Amino acid sequence: MKVLIADDHPVVRHGLKQILAAEAGVEVVGEATNGAETLDLARKLEWEVAIVDYSMPGRSGLDLLKELKREFPQRPVLILSMYPEELHATRVLKAGGAGYLSKECVGEELTAALRKVTNGGRYVSRSLAEKLAFELARDTQQPLHETLSDREYRVMWLLASGKQIHQIATELFVSPSTISTYRARIFRKLRLRTNAELVHYAIKHRLVD
Questions:
Q1: In terms of pTM, does the model score above 0.70?
Q2: Which domains can be identified in the chain, with CATH numbers?
């Protein structure tokens, strides 16, 4: 199994390599530290599965995932994140991700996740699987935040997490005016007027801690 790793933290990459080194037949063929490097290596190297951090400099995790799936539709991409799975896992799976792993659980779950996705399956934790099954069983109207685009959802989550417009602009490599435009769209779609209302909405729907 040839694995491509993408994470901007050296300690995380080292930890992943240590875990994978203990598995027979697994080889790390490349390491990337941002979205552009990930795409560059993905195009140059022979790999079978990618482990990609959700929050690297440059492209967002979802943007990078979609690009990888567009260019390499048959190769599984496993998303690794410091954020709890209930916040972003559903969107990752909808965007084509083969699985979503919290960094807190990576030591126990990584090899099992890799085996499953390379055999054509999708990997989610048992608790997330139960949550998804429960949501499918409910006959309720789609919540308003599900109407947001992936970028709008990302900006909404950052705003609700307490980030200022200029901080979000720096993180997403866009101008503050662009973030302000996203904010206006988000408020319109969620039928909100203030940041305080946005925070309340996010907490109510368990989108932030």
A1: no
A2: 2-135 (3.40.50.2300), 144-204 (1.10.10.10)
